Amino acid sequence: MSEFGKRTSKDTVRLERLLPGPVERVWAYLVESEKRGKWLAKGELEPRVGGRVQLQFLHSSLTPVQEPIPERFKMMECGVTGEETVTVFEPPTKLAMTWGNGTSEVSFELTPRGEQVLLVITHTRLGEQEMILVASGWHTHAGILEANLEERTPGAFWSVFLEIEAEYTRLFGMQEGESK
């Protein structure tokens, strides 16, 4: 298993992480607002297919390490809110929802592996220009989730994101905003 996500098709990226279990604990970090807010975004999730998901992103709240936000992300400095729809709800192993106001979809699959849990994040229906940004974002957020589950303090968000983004640019062989 590689730490970096893989581009599995022209519009799909897949990321895997082996996390401390049990599966019910990791599931809680996907569906409970307060726990999800520690690594991704707070917001209520209606636990059913067709249910609403509110996502309130505030990256500065994900880690105690404060740093300036990169200029190109300044519009996110005070937070960004989205509303999505649950497309799969199978506790405690599968959750999927629309993303980007329904333009794409993200799924989370949890598979117990002894005392650990394999988390697979698959993001589909991505535009060519979004691939690096989305892969870098999931990679950074998954690292923060892992730190929370291991009960350690996560590192800085933006500096990690920028470092990871440069690596995904190299791995995927294109510059952000460039079409293949």
Secondary-structure blueprint of this entry?
Blueprint: E1 6-9, E2 12-20, H1 23-31, H2 33-36, E3 52-57, E4 80-90, E5 94-99, E6 104-113, E7 116-124, H3 131-149, H4 158-172
Antiparallel strand pairs: 1-2, 2-7, 3-4, 4-5, 5-6, 6-7
Helix pairs in contact: 3-4
Structure description:
The chain is of the alpha+beta class. The protein has a single domain (6-172), classed as 2-Layer Sandwich (Alpha-D-Glucose-1,6-Bisphosphate, Chain A, domain 4), CATH 3.30.530. Helix content is 26%, strand content 31%. The protein has a seven-stranded antiparallel sheet, covered by helices on one side. It is globular.
* Cα gyration radius (Å): 15 Å
Query: If strands are numbered along the chain, what order do they take across the biggest sheet?
Result: 1-2-7-6-5-4-3
Write down the domain tally.
1
Query: CATH fold name, please?
Result: Alpha-D-Glucose-1,6-Bisphosphate, Chain A, domain 4
Main structural class: alpha+beta
Mean pLDDT: 93
CATH class equals Alpha Beta
Determine the number of helices (DSSP H or I, runs of at least 4 residues): 4
Using the alpha-carbon principal axes, give the shape.
Answer: globular
Strand count, sense and barrel status of the largest sheet are: 7 strands, antiparallel
CATH architecture: 2-Layer Sandwich
| Percent in strands | 25-35%
Written as H for each helix and E for each strand, in order along the chain, the element string is EEHHEEEEEHH
Poorly predicted runs = 175-180
How far is it from the N-terminal to the C-terminal residue, by CA?
27 Å
CATH superfamily: START domain
Which percent bin holds the helix content? 25-40%
Count of extended strands: 7
